[in-house]
Amino acid sequence: MEITKLTALELGRKIQAGEISVEEAVRTQLDMIREREGEYHCYITVLEEEALACAKKVQEGIRTGEYTSPLAGVPIAVKDNICTEGIRTTCASKILENFKPPYNATVVKKLDAAGMIVLGKTNMDEFAMGSTTETSYFGATKNPRDITRVPGGSSGGSAAAVAAGEAFLALGSDTGGSIRQPSAFCGVVGIKPTYGTVSRYGLIAYASSLDQIGPIGKDVADCAAMLSVIAGGDIKDSTSVQQKEFSYLGALADDISGMRIGIPRGYLGKGLDDEVRSAVLSAADLLRKRGAMVEEFDLEAVDYAIPAYYVIACAEASSNLSRYDGVKYGFRTEDYEGLEEMYRRTRTEGFGEETKRRMMIGAFVLSSGYYDAYYNKALKVKAVIKRGFDRAFEKYDLILGPTAPTTALKLGENLSDPLKMYLGDIYTVSVNLAGLPAISLPCGRDKAGLPVGLQLIGKPFGEREILRAAYCFEQSIK
Ligand code: GLN
Fold it and tell me: Is 0.85 surpassed by the pTM of this model?
């Protein structure tokens, strides 16, 4: 039996039953990483010794009954913008190249308490800004389905690691699509939870009002299991919701009869690749055959989502990234005279092009002369988008559409044209602006054999509904 082929939950069951040891599982993954990293480059840091030491501890804990999670002993990967105590956490930036956080993010503590084993920290776009993982200071990740293509981004390393069999599950973060779009490009499943479901404590901030951590896995059940572990209120994140019950595995019933699903007409129009459109519409047909009511409707303000998102995200980024000044932690330039020059050179040398572009846009839209024209207006558009979804959810339980307008792009294709790259986020960013949960899962392939992603968007805290529909779809195409 090939261990790597198992899903995370299958592996967890075999570990609990004593058929596979935790060490065996970890060693298999480390072998895969050794064999494949040269080609794919999913990781920035691999934690070989730490993972093996942790395997021993967890094996013993399973024996004594300390670890009862269905994912105990499962080797996983963590995006490199999530703080790990004493282990460098770079955000794929030169400015944090050698930063070792003095504490663990809340999600990392939760994974540890459940007995999951961190194999390493995954590659990403610098500070999670991008859609291709090419803006990483450490070089691009390749898409394991076709190495001439990007894995998507910004959580491209996490999605590629799962697709390549270099981790059973991974954590990503999603500010405007960074879990869903790379999951779509790599043919895996990813969930962006409702804002407030997962603690952001220890997630290095990009745009705080939009950021959420979520799981990337081989199938819907694996993602539901990991989300159950990481969800829950946290006094260290005042935007996390103090709700007790976050258990998602029970939601995976293979039955969607009577479910009402809406497809925004604006999600099927100009700019959408024909093959992606036909794969998504076939998926909708299949759900209809399984007993759901599916129809098209007009969602408000679809065209304004991208400009509003980029104004708000850049504004928050310019504020969040002002802390990297060479004083408190991270990189400091060697050659300077006086404080001001130290700041300037540190930031000039430490940040990449895309992060600089966003900080400049952000500072501009927040400046006193332009605040009302851009930032304030974007907040108003955000409210209109939210209202549009609220109205849609009076009629529908779920909203269905593509995750991205195309399948995985060629490496280098979008780097020179940032605007084109931003437009690729059309179907994902409004979900963050409205704070909603959404899942991306594979729904077929295009003629080149590249995976197409189907996106299901839920009501606030409607994770269970999107999981049920996703699970039902996945079972139907098995
Ligand atoms: N591609 C989007 C951006 O560049 C989303 C990134 C993300 O979700 N972190 O901002």
Answer: yes
